[in-house]
Amino acid sequence: MQVDSKKLEALVNTAIGDISAAYGGVMISLGYKLGLYRAMEGAGPLSAAEVARRAECAERYVREWLNAQVAGGYVAYHPSSETYELTPEQAMVLADETSPVFMPTAWQVPASMWADEAKAVKAFRTGEGIAWGEHDERLFCGVAAFYRNGYQASLVQQWLPALEGVTAKLERGARVADIGCGHGHSTIIMAKAYPSSRFYGFDVHEPSVEEARRLAEKEGVADRVKFEVATATQYPSREYDLICFFDCLHDMGHPAGALLHAADALAKDGTVMLVEPFAHDRVEENVGPVGRLYYSASTMICCAHAISEKGTHVLGAQAGEARLAKVARASGFAKFRRALETPFNLILEARLA
Questions:
Q1: DSSP letter for each residue of 96-121
Q2: Of 147, 182, 237, 268, which residue is least crowded by CB atoms under 10 Å?
Q3: pTM of the predicted model as reported, rounded to 2 decimal places
């Protein structure tokens, strides 16, 4: 076989870029956990010694870390004064934990994937699954934190208003079920926005449910939010006006069963909202950084959990609208539409009639 030297060089450069990004992710996680970004936020140009003093860290480590940040484009450098600066844009991504584009906690997910590598090797060899609760604990916090700010920025402001008649019900007072609620961020965000409604979060992972209860108390909504350990086919039917699946239906081995139960648990004119990772329906249409991120996470987490449930489907994180619509219609939902999309999510609406 003839090797194309230009194609080889391009592929090697891609690999080096990926390795560099993996190293950089460790540096970003350290910067977050040590408070280095917070120490720089809004402070203007600082020397390495000043950053170290503000963050109460050793200067020599901090200086090397800062140089790694400069090399990666995450911190600005001023050669004439040998100082470092976190720009407002960099602060939004790295320091402001309320920002919709805050990223450092997202690196906990690949860290958990590396920790679970031996389990994945075994799963590939045997075809067995890996249940959600069997993963490294960094996965649960990383996923919750990664999605939280996106929900905070978009759920009440854009996604719920895109559904037919839902916000009016929530304002009057509705029953809402949040399936696969995890740490409960989505449930709590809705509860804070709609105090007349009542919210019920369900998840199979007991430690996540316990954390959700703690957060509900902290956020002052425990009077109208209840979290329970339950599967997507076993939670109580209460004639819910809205049933939400936030980034979780594709993880389930029995998604049709989950939607059948949702159909039974809905009020007569109720709505199901599916928030799913953005995907086109064909592999060749999902080529790019977002598609690779989702396919990779799906390999280690989403497909692995669905296989562990020994169910009817292994949809994966890139299921796409067409396959999700097919499952919904087979479960009795006559109406199914894309209510909204973002670069990272599909917001899908299902109704019985």
A1: -TTSTT--GGGGHHHHHHHHTHHHHH
A2: 268
A3: 0.91
